[in-house]
């Protein structure tokens, strides 16, 4: 039984070691750096929370291959990003551009902060703290009435 378990473990580890590891050849280090930068900026359409450099999804592998091919074709970073956006939409960018569609996305944090400040300010405006020990004339009259109605024994306790 132990021998079968060891054999099964060996097969599992050997299968994991046969996983495909992508390697890309670059003419120089600037192309390698551009590849790394662009792969970090582009989002995997399937994973949605990973860039194409970190994703193991098949579509991310395809995007890395396409990125590598376009870099070797001599395309600029802007041309590559435009190609990816045209093909997959603005979602493929981790930092969407500011335009009429994404303006709400970019402005929402500032708008929410402004609204929060206005709500706090308006709620604090109605609560003017009274100075300790001061009474309004109505409160003073009511206190005098209460004290005048009190018995001598009550006054001693006060």
Structure, explained:
The chain is mainly alpha-helical and 158 residues long. It has a domain at 24-92: Orthogonal Bundle (Helicase, Ruva Protein, domain 3), CATH 1.10.8.640. Helices cover 62% and strands 0% of the residues. It is built from seven helices and no strands. α2 packs antiparallel against α3 (58-72). The longest helix has 23 residues, at 103-125. The radius of gyration is 35 Å and the shape is elongated.
Write the layout of secondary structure elements.
Layout: H1 2-17, H2 29-41, H3 58-72, H4 77-88, H5 103-125, H6 137-149, H7 152-157
Helix pairs in contact: 2-3
Low-confidence stretches: 15-20
Q: What radius of gyration results from the CA coordinates?
A: 35 Å
CATH topology of the domain at 24-92: Helicase, Ruva Protein, domain 3
Q: What's the story with the biggest beta sheet?
A: none
How do you describe this structure in short?
This protein is mainly alpha-helical. It has a domain at 24-92: Orthogonal Bundle (Helicase, Ruva Protein, domain 3), CATH 1.10.8.
Question: Can you give keywords for this protein?
Answer:
single chain, 158 residues, mainly alpha, Helicase, Ruva Protein, domain 3
